[in-house]
Amino acid sequence: QVQLVESGGGLVQPGGSLRLSCAASGSIFSSNDMGWYRQAPGKQRELVAQITSGGSTHYGDSVKGRFTISRDNATNTVYLQMNSLKPEDTAVYYCNAGGWSTRLHVGPGNYWGQGTQVTVSS
After folding, report:
1. Which one, of 5, 4, 12, 7, lies nearest residue 66 by Cα?
2. Chain-centre distance of CA 40, in angstroms?
3. Cβ-proximal residues to 105 (8 Å cutoff; 6+ apart), any chain
4. Beta-bridge partners for 99
5. Cβ-based neighbour number of residue 85 at 10 Å
6. What is the share, in percent, of the chain residues with pLDDT greater than 90?
7. What are the two backbone dihedrals, phi and then psi, of residue 87, each rounded to the nearest 5 degrees?
8. Residue 103's pLDDT band (cuts 50, 70, 90)
9. 104 pairs with which residues across the strands?
């Protein structure tokens, strides 16, 4: 059994910051990637950030330089620090576990959190 518990979403003004967290438990993929994906209404789910157990990171083009992903392997917890938020960042953010990545390829695992709403609006 795999359980992903997310927290930290909410409403923020443009230019503000939010910090998301996701704790994974009961996973057989403890040595695999963890990450964040997001989906806005009418759009496909897209990569936000992904991190390996060794700390290598991958970011979606639209968030590079603004978001930072980090990981605590001892607790299997992944974080997403979001700065300089824009209205275009408004979406449901999903935690993901069990993914894989190399320098050239990034893919999610089969385990997803329930999602947390992030709304950026003035």
Report:
1. 12
2. 14
3. none
4. 33
5. 22
6. 83
7. -55, -30
8. confident
9. none
Q: What are the DSSP E strand ranges found in the chain? A: 3-7, 10-12, 18-25, 33-39, 46-51, 57-59, 67-72, 77-82, 91-101, 106-107, 111-112, 116-120
Reading the block at residue 52, the tokens are 């390996």
Task: Report how far residue 37's alpha carbon sits from residue 35's, in angstroms, rounded to the nearest whole number.
Answer: 7
Place of tokens 């605590």: 72
3-24 per-position pLDDT tens digit: 999 999 999 999 999 999 999 8
Query: Which residue, among 45, 50, 37, has the nearest Cα to 100 in the 3D structure?
Result: 50
Which SS3 state, helix, strand or coil, does residue 105 take? coil
For residue 116 the two structure tokens come to 């947390």
Residue 110 and residue 2 in contact, taking contact as beta carbons nearer than 8 Å? no
Residue pair 7/21 in contact by the 8 Å Cβ criterion: yes
3-state secondary structure at position 21? strand
Cβ atoms 45, 60 nearer than 8 A:
no
